[in-house]
Every structure is written in structure tokens, then in C-alpha cells.
Amino acid sequence: MDVKASMPTEPVKVNYCINSNMPQMDGFEMVQQTRESDRKSPILFLSARSSVDDVISRFTLSGNE
């Protein structure tokens, strides 16, 4: 398999970079609200939370790791 052939020709623009542990609203809730109006923009989660449930939640909300 040619790795270069499978790579995008242009960089992927990340519109949101979310921390799961925010002071007033957690990242999961913020992404859930964001996805109500924006289903396509890539969302990058930055988190020290690595439990299986947390990882599944990020992907369920259509986050990108």
C-alpha cells in the first residue's frame, strides 16, 4: 500500500480543539452542543482522560482523536 497515495493533498483544518476538563462546561457537553449545528468540522480532543468510556464518548460525539 502506498502511504502517500492515501494521505490528503492539503492539510486538514481543525476548527475546534477541546479539552475534556473545562471549568464551567465539560468538553463532552460542549461538543454535543456544537454538533447540533455543525456536524462536519473536525474536532480534536485533548485530554488526560483515557478510560475506555471516555474514548468511546469522544468517538460517539464524532470527535477526532
Distance between the termini: 23 Å
What class do helices, strands and sheet pairing give? alpha+beta
Shape: globular
Strand order of the largest sheet: 1-2
The domain count comes to 1
Task: Please write the string of helix (H) and strand (E) elements.
Answer: HEHEH
Low-confidence stretches: none
Number of strands: 2
Q: What fraction, in percent, of the residue positions are helical?
A: 25-40%
Total number of helices: 3
> Mean of residue pLDDT?
76
Beta-strand percentage range? 5-15%
Major pleated sheet: 2 strands, parallel
What's the alpha carbon Rg, rounded to whole Å?
A: 14 Å
List keywords for this structure.
65 residues, alpha+beta, two-stranded parallel sheet, 3 helices, 12% strand
Word description of this protein:
The chain has 65 residues and is of the alpha+beta class. The chain has one domain (3-60). Helix content is 37%, strand content 12%. The protein has a two-stranded parallel ribbon. The model has no long low-confidence stretch (mean pLDDT 76).
Describe the structure concisely.
By secondary structure, this protein is α+β, with helices and mostly antiparallel strands.
Detail the topology: elements first, then pairings.
Elements: H1 3-6, E1 16-19, H2 27-37, E2 43-46, H3 52-60
Parallel strand pairs: 1-2
